[in-house]
Amino acid sequence: YDALSYTWGNLAKTHEMKIGDASLPITTNLYMALRELRRKHTLTLWVDAVCIDQSNCQERNHQVRMMRRIFSNASSVIVWLG
């Protein structure tokens, strides 16, 4: 997998991301990054806003402690500057 590093940006402005039958609100900055990456690559991508249940404080705290390992173990880290 590759990991995406980005800033969340304005949390008030969101887009809907479809994952199977579900929809997930994502920030405009993440939406733009994913849209651009989709044009260039087919990736298995780790993205915190998608891979971590943001509504579950316990999971979020646990995953944040693992982020160093997640990024270190990634095949590559893509940095989105906007």
TrEMBL record:
Pfam hit, one: HET
Protein origin, superkingdom: Eukaryota
Name of the protein this chain belongs to: Heterokaryon incompatibility
TM annotation in the entry: none
Boundaries of every Heterokaryon incompatibility domain copy: 1-82
Classification of source organism: Eukaryota, Fungi, Dikarya, Ascomycota, Pezizomycotina
InterPro entries in alphabetical order: HET, HetReg/Transcr_Mod
